[in-house]
Amino acid sequence: MQVAGGCGLGALDAAKEKGIWGIGADQLFLGPYILTSALKNDDIAVLTTIKTVQDGTFVGGQDVVFEVASGAAGLGKISPKVPHDIGPKVRAKEKAVAAGQVASIPTTSSSSAAAGAAPRETALREPVPGVRPRMAWSTEACA
After folding, report:
1. Residue 32 lies in a domain
2. d(Cα 19, Cα 12) in Å, to the nearest integer?
3. What is the Cα gyration radius of the chain?
4. 3-state secondary structure of 32
5. Other CB atoms closer than 10 Å to residue 46's CB: what's the count?
6. Is residue 67 part of a domain?
7. Mean per-residue pLDDT of the chain
8. What is the pLDDT of residues 83-104, one digit of tens each?
9. Which of 50, 63, 76, 115 falls between 20 and 30 A from 88, CA-CA?
10. Is 97 a domain residue?
11. What backbone phi and psi angles, to 5 degrees, belong to 68?
């Protein structure tokens, strides 16, 4: 998974070259080797902020979090190459995250360490039929 904009395209190219899944951020358009794409629906954050300014409730100087529950973040379309029984499971997990039912979400480093993988690779927790059960993580794409 990469979230480095245009710089991160190297990570997605590496996934394509290795024949493994890549996950982009707002980049599902890049092709069928993209498993899905993390979406940032900035319009929700912008409109919400504008409304608070208009109604006089805006408070500056603080962080405001817009997450899956607010619709400001989520997953894009799931690749048609993903087995049909997997898509609904992914969507159910997305809904569980939005509902606050997921206690913790593993980070790249913790999931890599748990899988015993090098920093650039991490094993998927559940193998996906027909897909090599690993993903590439590149920290050198911008070098």
Report:
1. yes
2. 11
3. 17
4. coil
5. 12
6. no
7. 69
8. 888 888 888 988 998 888 887 7
9. 115
10. yes
11. -60, -40
